[in-house]
Amino acid sequence: MDDSKKLKGKDLINIGIFAAIYFVVIMALAMLGFIPIFMPSYSILMPLLGGIPFMLFLTKVKKFGMVWIMTIIMGLLMWLTGMSYYAFVIGIFSGLIAELILKKGEYKSAKCAVLCHAVFCFWIVSNYIPLFFFADKYWSTRQDFGQEYIDALTKLFPVWMFPVHILLCFVFGILGGLLGRKILKKHFAKAGIV
Hints:
By secondary structure, this protein is an all-alpha fold. It is built from 11 helices and no strands.
């Protein structure tokens, strides 16, 4: 492999910095989940507002593996902070697909960057899997939330809504990518992304 295509320390530092920034944004939005009605909004708010730091990250991405590693890191962080391992598992696949989309645009295509963000966001909706498919098991370890809270969330996550959340995550991933691209227009131009 050509040395210029290998990940170097600077690339890994960029991944770490932007993963931390992105994680802070996501966790700030996650605090809304203490009010049950806001929990389903994660499929909208996280891809939309997370698009800004993610698109800034893409101005630093010029080598294969950076998006994939960041997706895996996000999945690991979700797992370590009490969510299930689904974000990690889904992130392995969605991160690779997002990476391949970005590579197809040779790391210079704004359209590929926006689509990359939308696919990257699938790790977000994977956090809902226990709520949709294993609610009894999920809530059995979280009884301290209180029955009223549990009942309210259970009503908000019927199984038939799972595909809707996947679609919302993708659509708002596109919109978040476009928002980030518009806000960061100068950064995109400087990075040669058109």
